[in-house]
Amino acid sequence: MWNTWLNVIFAYFLTSVTSARPNILIFLVDDLGIADVSCFGNDTIKTPNIDRLAEEGARLRHDVTPDSICTPNRAAFLTGRYPIRSGLASDRGQLRAFIFTAASGGLPQNETTFAEIASTGGYKTGMIGKWHLGLHSSSNSDFHFHPLKQGFHYFYGLPLSNIKDCEPGQYIIELLVPGLNPTNVLTAGAIIGVTLFICYLTGLFNKTAFILLLTVTALISFAMSTFLIMMSQFNCFVMKNYDVVEQPTILENLTMRFTDEAVNFIRTNKDNPFLLYMSFVKVHTPLFNTRPFVNHSIHGRYGDNVEEMDWSVGQIMAAVEELGLKENTFVYFTSDNGPHLEKVSDTGEYHGGWSGIYKGGKGQCWEGGVRMPTIVSWPGHIPTGISLDKLTSSMDVLPTVAKLTGADLPDDRVVDGKDLLPLLTNQTQQSSHEFIFHYCGNQVHAVRYHPKNSDTVWKAHFVTPKWTEGTESCIGKSVLCRCHGDRVEVQDPPFFMT
């Protein structure tokens, strides 16, 4: 009899605790500029679903990242720690992110992610989209850095990113060796072959030497061009958990498939608390759209991509609302870094975003590269339609998730992020951050200082990139601005701004 009552009481208590904990939905967009969405000042690109999130929650207008490029910022986003702490702050010039799936590095397993925090609290965790934090370590089957080894129960997406290799005729290796592509390799082979033939005709080679050299040239040209083609295939594939389900990646309807996967994850886990990390490959280049969104905006292919991404947000939020989960779902929307200002297509069309009133973009520590269009919504807890100018960081997600799930933060390391809830729920009017550092690779290029009991935030720039004249980018010089050497200018004394 007593056992029965105890079981009933325990079940009631467990249900009450579970229902009190919100679902967590995290949207991370790729290369979205702070002024690319309507609610942050864009009056031509239409983003009604993102705008609705802002109307129902809070816009964080001083939300910044510790770096300004994909891989290090994603490491910081997941762990709440500066990327240099996890070894993902590179000094490799413009190659400060993984560009090959076969790279042997990644987010260390001893780092704690917000997925692991939620998982220990009984949440079902899923990730859809772009990972970009490594895959294998010492073999092509150890999956050492895979999302399922980092706290996620389900993964559907790209282990790398949406890179040049995913677009026919484009090759990421050209970042390392300009002009190294199959067409040029075969052309070079043909030129060498003609040269050998001329040498044979003029008597410089006998017939045997000519045939031997021509055969070697043909074999090398064919092997190298085949390798380059295959390497691009190896970089672009879709995984479902540990299985490759598509190779090469078909871009056209990828956002639609990601959206369906996200909705299915929510439906499957509607009766339990869940954390879903929706990591868009949009609006990173190469740009692509499903047919209904081709020529959908007045801003060319980039605008089409932003508007399709907004549609996806709307579909996922509609599923949350349809299932009656909206009132108990914490939603966080942001970008990983600023817009890629150097991106211009072969036809001259600009394929990057907009930083609005802020200087610079992706790859730079100017505001356009590190200040994000962040929105947070949680009905009944966060006031609606508010705009906060307090200093916050993308690293704040992990400690906020810990608070929401009732889990403890790891006590064996420094966590640089701060719990956002006191600020979002009006328990405090002050940011918990005193300093936030902005890295370019493994070097600090700028720092923010927020004096305690003050609303002022100072920013000091120690190093700034040398822009191409007449621009706020390094277009024509490199794919991204560099971090050191003759491509930067040391500010001595530092350049201060508020």
TrEMBL record:
Residues 22-407 form the Sulfatase N-terminal domain. One of its GO terms (molecular function) is metal ion binding. The chain crosses the membrane at residues 185-203, 210-231. PROSITE patterns: SULFATASE_2. It comes from the Eukaryota. Its cofactor is Ca(2+). The keyword ATP-binding does not apply. InterPro entries: Alkaline_phosphatase_core_sf, Sulfatase, Sulfatase_CS, Sulfatase_N. Residues 1-20 form the signal peptide. Keywords: Calcium, Hydrolase, Membrane, Metal-binding, Signal, Transmembrane, Transmembrane helix. Belongs to the sulfatase family. This is Sulfatase N-terminal domain-containing protein. It comes from Desmophyllum pertusum.
